[in-house]
Write a structure and sequence with these properties.
Layout: E1 28-36, E2 42-50, E3 61-66, E4 72-74, E5 82-89, E6 95-102, E7 107-114, E8 121-135, E9 141-147, E10 174-179, E11 182-185, E12 191-199, E13 205-212, E14 223-228, E15 231-236, E16 243-249, E17 255-261, E18 272-277, E19 286-287, E20 295-302, E21 305-312, E22 315-320, E23 328-331, E24 334-336, E25 345-347, E26 350-356, E27 363-367, E28 373-374, E29 386-395, E30 398-407, E31 420-426, H1 444-450, E32 454-459, H2 468-471, H3 481-496, E33 499-509, H4 511-522, E34 528-532, H5 538-544, H6 551-555, H7 563-568, E35 582-587, H8 595-608, E36 612-617, H9 627-644
Parallel strand pairs: 31-32, 31-33, 33-34, 34-35, 35-36
Antiparallel strand pairs: 1-2, 2-3, 3-4, 5-6, 6-7, 7-8, 8-9, 9-10, 10-11, 12-13, 13-14, 14-15, 16-17, 17-18, 18-19, 20-21, 21-22, 22-23, 24-26, 25-26, 26-27, 27-28, 29-30, 30-32
């Protein structure tokens, strides 16, 4: 249940804006999936350009850059609607392979080009899903493949229609090598492989995570395995309250490192770094970051050392996990591979990060760890007219952190008696964190700031950034301790910022949508709420969602074994306490947070006479990916807050 890169956007109504709040005229250049050649001289990235005044959804394009100078070359693909992904360099650095998907089809290709950008050739044509393309030590290619996939893999995607005999056929994702325009399966039938890495040796072998059955639902039960000759050997099975991700085999093939912790979504990995000796059958993993006060979100071998990229709230931290001379670098900026969590991309002694913060647009930096030099200058002069500061407070003995964002100027009517309205936005997860990622002009946060609202983005217990004990602190306690953390954070903020206690709003998506629904049943402090993809009733939700395996790690049992703990944290249990006007929206094909949950909450509020509105967007999964739907949802959300927080042109509270 996660809120990640959800809303593309809309241009706020000009009548509500002063010139200082106009969306930036310059395009925003974004970078993702950086792949560094083994000699550190070439960098491949997937770039997108967002035009603030365009309604078109940007399509990524493949770019090669020489280092350190940054000279660029855009690779021309064979079709206008081709979407590249997963660039990977050959061990000798002479070729770059990548996947190409033809938009709105199951047609896939694996293509290869030389490091000079010449001789584009097709290695494979395939019908189905392909992802995570990787060269092995001997120059062979491997990929994760689903033949004739029913839909794109991942629980965040829009779910396929549930008709016919349910679960009669499940997509199976397998490791395959690419040879002579064909796939050769390397993992057995009947398993869904989520991630993998090559293991150096005389025969093709891989270390990865896998589970049986439904791939979306069963990741929380995935184990660590070795795959060779089409057979699986299980290496490590984790505890109930722990998931595993990011398997990384050492260059010599003798050990594998991975991240283990309480995680709420595949892809948003965080926890401790563990290492398993592959030379000793039956060995137990060793925890490399035991009792750490940070959360590891990435692992890489760089300069001959294992490097952990971590959230150390509020900073990004890079640290070597060995007993050699200490190597640790921290930054107030987010240093990542283009995503929302810290990651480091390495080859030999060179590394690459994409550097950004709330108000500074992303750029590529490269060099030795901590000695990065700026490579791109494509977003120079692009900034957000806002200020952002980290806020810290204590709650029940925990040190808690969050972010306060404020516009540099705002429409005059937003300030009353020297005070301004505040909207609290709670992140998804709950195992996640708000990091200082650039505020794209089409995102919810930028839209609310341009309208004149201050924002509070807390990282309450259950979040990443303060170690595994903090992440586990809301286990079997959803909505209680984390709400106390949020409330106390607002109390602290009101002592240092001109916040109007009488004009507080609350919003969030996924777990943030659940928390929004929960909060309005627990307090009347907030005068307006907007819940996206929320959960009203954990008991009914258990049987409605497509990923129920995520719940026992957080609740300690299934709903059938301990229904009381699920009711304990359900908004519907306390529904008659709601007084707050609440806008609700969700995707019609949301697998993670099905629309039935939003309907249940909406039905109750209507029956109780609480001002409410519900919109279900057709074809959408977990988040608004369709631009027209994102525009509509943002307009409705902003109008709702304007109406009940007395913004310019607002109707009086309580109006229907």
């Amino acid at each position: 249940m996660s809120l990640k890169a959800l809303s593309p956007a809309f241009l706020l109504c000009a009548s509500l804006l002063t010139p200082a709040f106009a969306a930036p005229a310059a395009p925003l250049h974004l970078f993702s999936a950086p792949a560094l050649s083994p000699d550190g001289q070439h960098l491949a990235t997937l770039d997108t350009t967002e035009q603030p005044d365009s309604d078109a959804t940007p399509v990524p394009f493949l770019v090669l850059r020489s280092l350190p100078g940054g000279k660029t070359m855009t690779i021309l693909l064979p079709c206008k609607d081709c979407i590249p992904s997963s660039p990977s360099w050959s061990p000798d650095g002479t070729h770059l392979a990548f996947i190409v998907r033809q938009k709105n089809t199951q047609n896939r290709q694996i293509m290869r080009i030389t490091s000079t950008g010449a001789k584009l050739e097709t290695l494979l044509k395939f019908t189905g899903s392909l992802q995570d393309l990787r060269y092995g030590p001997d120059g062979a290619l491997a990929v994760l493949a689903i033949a004739d996939a029913r839909r794109d893999p991942g629980a965040l995607q829009a779910g396929a229609a549930e008709t016919g005999e349910i679960d009669a056929k499940e997509d199976e994702q397998r490791i395959a090598t690419v040879e002579k325009n064909a796939l050769h399966w390397q993992s057995p039938d009947g398993l869904y492989v989520y991630e993998y890495d090559w293991q150096k040796g005389s025969v093709p072998a891989f270390i990865g995570t896998a589970a049986t059955g439904n791939g979306d639902a069963h990741w929380w039960q995935a184990h660590l395995s070795r795959f060779a000759g089409g057979q699986e050997t299980i290496l490590y099975t984790h505890a109930l309250s722990q998931q595993i991700g990011l398997p990384l085999v050492a260059p010599d093939g003798k050990s594998v490192s991975f991240v283990a912790g309480l995680m709420s979504d595949f892809g948003f990995f965080g926890g401790d770094a563990l290492q398993l000796d592959l030379t000793r059958p039956g060995a137990t993993p060793v925890t490399l970051t035991k009792n750490s006060k940070s959360t590891v979100t990435g692992l890489s071998w760089c300069q001959g050392r294992l490097i952990a990229a971590s959230i150390a709230s509020p900073k990004t931290m890079m640290e070597a996990l060995d007993d050699k001379t200490p190597l640790m670098v921290s930054s107030d900026d987010l240093l990542s591979n283009g995503g929302g969590e810290p990651r480091l991309v390495c080859a030999g002694d060179q590394s690459v990060v994409i550097r950004q913060n709330f108000t500074k647009a992303p750029e590529i930096w490269a060099g030795r760890i901590g000695d990065w030099q700026q490579v791109t200058h494509l977003n120079e002069g692009l900034s957000v007219p806002a200020k952002a500061e980290s806020v810290s407070w204590t709650s029940d003995g925990f040190a808690v952190q969050g972010w306060h964002l404020a516009p540099l100027s705002r429409p005059a009517p937003m300030t009353r008696n020297g005070k301004v309205p505040l909207i609290t936005e709670i992140h998804g997860g709950p195992s996640s964190a708000v990091m200082p990622r650039f505020l794209r002009s089409n995102g919810d946060a930028a839209v609310l700031l341009r309208a004149g609202y201050d924002l509070f983005m807390p990282n309450p217990r259950g979040s990443y950034g303060q170690g595994e004990a903090f992440t586990m602190a809301n286990r079997r306690d959803f909505g209680y301790g984390d709400l106390r953390d949020v409330q106390r954070g607002i109390d602290v903020l009101e002592k240092t910022a001109p916040i109007d206690e009488n004009r507080l709003g609350i919003t969030g998506y996924s777990y943030g949508g659940y928390m929004t629904m929960w909060i309005v049943t627990q307090t009347n402090r907030f005068k307006a709420a907007a819940a996206g993809g929320g959960i009203a009733n954990w008991q009914s939700y258990y049987g409605q969602n497509g990923i129920d395996a995520w719940m026992p790690p957080f609740f300690g049992a299934t709903v059938y074994d301990d229904p009381a703990i699920y009711a304990h944290s359900s908004p519907i249990t306390f529904i008659k306490q709601v007084k707050t006007p609440t806008f609700i929206y969700v995707g019609a094909n949301d697998v993670e947070c099905p629309p039935a949950q939003s309907l249940e909450f909406y039905h109750a509020l209507r029956a109780l006479g609480i001002p409410t509105s519900l919109v279900i967007y057709p074809g959408e999964g977990h988040g608004m990916r369709g631009r027209d739907h994102a525009i509509d949802a943002q307009k409705r959300m902003l109008a709702w807050f304007d109406r009940y927080l007395h913004a310019p042109g607002a109707q009086p509270a309580g109006a229907n």
